[in-house]
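As promised in the previous annual report, we have extended the structural survey to additional targets. Below is the entry for NUDIX hydrolase.
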Amino acid sequence: MDAQPTEVALAVLYRENRYLMQLRDRIPGILYPGFWGLFGGHLEPDESPDEGMRRELLEEIGYCPPELHKFGCDTDPGIVRHIYHGPLTVGLEGLILGEGWDMGLIPPEQVQEGEAFSVKANEVRPLGTPHQRIVLSVLNAGLG
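The corresponding structure token record, generated without further manual editing, is:
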């Protein structure tokens, strides 16, 4: 019997042609430690992707945009990423970082380059490969 894939919900939030990303903690054992990624996370048992996305955003940044739309799914072996997009209607000062090392509004050029500067880390950090791919898909669709 095949194992069920892990399901996560991730948000591509944008403001003024920049994309909100989270610098993940440097905790051993997590995926992409110290890399830029998207806010979101694992779905709870019996939780829909819509419910999980809203819950994760409230837990991680204390905010869920009034408009949040399903973009599609991104898959790798063993994982299904439900992708959402929407405008970030508040500035970074209106968010409460509840998970992660840093957050920032990353311009498209840095998403394409695959790295961005973190004020808190005081260094350039790489983007996680799937997160970069997802943001580029949203950008290429003309969103943000």
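The longest strand covers residues 6-15. The chain is about 20% helix and 35% strand. These points will be discussed at the next consortium meeting with the crystallography subgroup.
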